[in-house]
Design brief:
single chain; Rossmann fold; 8 strands; 29% helix
Length: 211
């Protein structure tokens, strides 16, 4: 029963097969490697297809049930992983805004996709020099851009069915489309979504510059 539920949840999550794996693959071209923290992950284990060591965090009971099926999850990951040795997968059933039982700092990549202001809640777990992978759906890329501890290192654009990371012309990104608009943390919190920018990559990579 657990195996069937695991497969069903993954098929629903992976309704665009390979898409999230391709995004993580593009990020890996910039990322030097190391432990990955993925708060608000739900059941998106595609990160483990690309990165050998991932800690997932989610408060949803379905995510807890999914990751509790270690054999089922391992079968999915082993059938898709890009690295040779078996991966390391950990799961923390918690709200990422609470104190997590992980090192501070202890991770080289922090993933923030469709989960709110992960950059703010989990920055302390990211090592200086580490990367934040964020999109702007809930305004997290905008929030990171306001944080003096982060600097934009690259953007990831989608072309056809593939993603490509680039660090060229970064000053052309994060420019509000609305003339004269000033992006503030108050604005992002009030709307709980990203502002419209003149350029809209699929994701951003920010480097943490301070402890």
């Amino acid at each position: 029963m657990a195996e069937v539920r695991t497969e069903q949840l993954w098929r629903t999550q992976n309704r665009h097969p390979g898409d999230r794996e391709s995004l993580f693959g593009a990020a890996s071209e910039v990322f030097d490697g190391g432990p990955v923290l993925y708060p608000g992950s739900y059941v998106d284990i595609a990160a483990s297809f690309v990165f050998p060591q991932v800690t997932y965090v989610d408060s949803d009971r379905r995510a807890a049930q999914f990751l509790a099926d270690r054999d089922g999850v391992t079968r999915i990951v082993d059938g898709n992983r890009r690295y040779e040795e078996p991966g390391e997968i950990e799961f923390i059933h918690a709200d990422y805004r609470s104190d997590l039982p992980v090192p501070e700092p202890g991770f080289d990549l922090l993933v923030a996709l469709y989960a709110g202001f992960v950059s703010e809640g989990c920055k302390r777990y990211l090592r200086p020099g580490g990367l934040l992978l964020a999109n702007n759906s809930h305004g997290d890329a905008g929030m990171a851009s306001l944080d003096p501890d982060f600097e934009l290192a690259a953007v990831i654009n989608k072309r056809d069915a593939s993603y490509l990371a680039t660090s060229r012309d970064l000053d052309r990104y994060l420019v509000p489309k609305k003339e004269g608009q000033v992006v503030t943390d108050e604005l992002l919190r009030r709307t709980n979504r990203g502002v419209a920018y003149t350029r809209s990559p699929s994701a951003y990579l920010f480097r943490k510059t301070a402890g």
